[in-house]
Structures are given as structure tokens and as C-alpha cells.
Specification:
By secondary structure, the protein is mostly helical. The protein is 71% helix and 4% strand. The chain has 9 helices and 2 strands. It has helices at residues 3-12, 16-37, 41-57, 68-87, 96-101, 106-121, 124-135, 140-147, 151-169, and strands at 174-177, 180-183. Strand 1 (174-177) and strand 2 form a beta hairpin. Helix 7 (124-135) crosses helix 9 (151-169). The longest helix is centred in the N-terminal third of the chain and has 22 residues, at 16-37. Mean pLDDT is 78; it is low at 89-104 and 172-181.
């Protein structure tokens, strides 16, 4: 029997330890996902926690179908989109970028900033695919399930994203992300 199925059953029965195990199992993945969408670490952590709160709030209605991780990504994606809608109205603090850059070597920071800027400049539907596939390490079929689109559309959008990233970062570049390297 699937471990997630058992965890969900135990959570529905109110077992505290099952909630802890569940959160520990998925917290890192969801935090990385939110972090790619939200460069501020504190907001990313808040969005991650809110993802689990939303999941637990609807736990009694949740029917396990073998795609718990995908469901968490869907919740997190919706929260990240909501965050960006709200963020347009929020003033930004000067100097936040400099504070985060102090702890990392300048070359790495500049390279990371270039990649982040290039990924952020993609259309949201392309950006989501890049984040899920390259940074989160999901398979194309899983990306299709999370985004509720066809596998062929995932492949097409991934190809378009790679072309656009190649133009933004330079055709000769190769970028390592998550689990593999992709040419740009």
C-alpha cells in the first residue's frame, strides 16, 4: 500500500505524528518551488506553510488518487500567483538584493541573477514548466498533471522556454538546474 495513502488515513484519524511525517516529506520540495517563484526567503517560507495549511484545511474532503505531491504543487502555484498579484501593490525595500548577495561570491550571485531574471521574464505558463521540470525535477508527465495540461503542450512549452532562455542568456551557454543540465 502507498505510504502517502497511509499517512493521509492517519492524518484523517487525527494522528499528530502523521502530520509531522507528511510535512517533513514534502516541505523541502514545496519550499524550493515557492522559492523559485518568490525570491524573498521569508515569503517563500510563508507560502510553503500556507500550502500545507490549505491542504490540511481540506483534508477531510481530499480523496487520495496517488498524486498528493502534484496537488501540493497546484496549491503552491495558486498561492504564488496570488502573491504576485498582491506584490504589485506592495512597496519594495531598497537594498534587499545587496543584503542577500553579501554571503555569496559575486560571480555566483551575478550568474544566479541573470538566470533568475531570464526565467522570470518568461511568460507564466513557460516559467512554471521550467521550474517544475528543471528545478523541481518532475517528469514531463508529472508537470502535465500538476498544470492540468497535455503532455504534448508541456513538451512544446518546454521547447519554447529553452529557445527564449537561450536568446536571453546566450546560445553558447549551458545552465545546470536541479537534476540535469540543459542547453540554452
Amino acid at each position: 500500500m502507498n505510504a502517502d495513502f497511509l499517512l493521509i488515513q492517519k492524518m484523517k484519524q487525527g494522528e499528530e505524528e502523521a502530520f509531522d511525517v507528511f510535512v517533513r516529506k514534502y516541505y523541502g520540495e514545496i519550499l524550493r518551488y515557492c522559492g523559485y517563484h518568490c525570491p524573498d526567503r521569508e515569503y517563500a517560507e510563508d507560502l510553503t506553510q500556507e500550502t500545507f495549511l490549505h491542504f490540511f484545511a481540506k483534508l477531510s474532503e481530499y480523496h487520495y488518487m496517488g498524486k498528493t505531491r502534484n496537488y501540493l504543487y497546484t496549491i503552491a502555484g495558486n498561492l504564488c500567483r496570488d502573491f504576485y498579484r498582491k506584490k504589485k501593490d506592495m512597496p519594495t525595500e531598497a537594498g534587499e538584493l545587496e543584503k542577500s548577495a553579501v554571503s555569496a561570491p559575486l560571480d555566483n550571485v551575478l550568474e544566479q541573477m541573470d538566470v533568475e531574471a531570464a526565467v522570470k521574464s518568461l511568460l507564466p505558463e513557460l516559467r512554471d514548466i521550467v521550474i517544475l521540470y528543471y528545478f523541481q525535477g518532475l517528469k514531463m508527465r508529472e508537470v502535465a498533471d500538476v498544470l492540468q495540461i497535455s503532455l504534448s503542450l508541456v513538451k512544446y512549452r518546454l521547447q519554447q522556454a529553452k529557445k527564449q532562455l537561450g536568446q536571453k542568456l546566450g546560445e553558447e551557454g549551458v545552465y545546470e538546474a536541479g537534476r540535469e543540465t540543459f542547453d540554452i
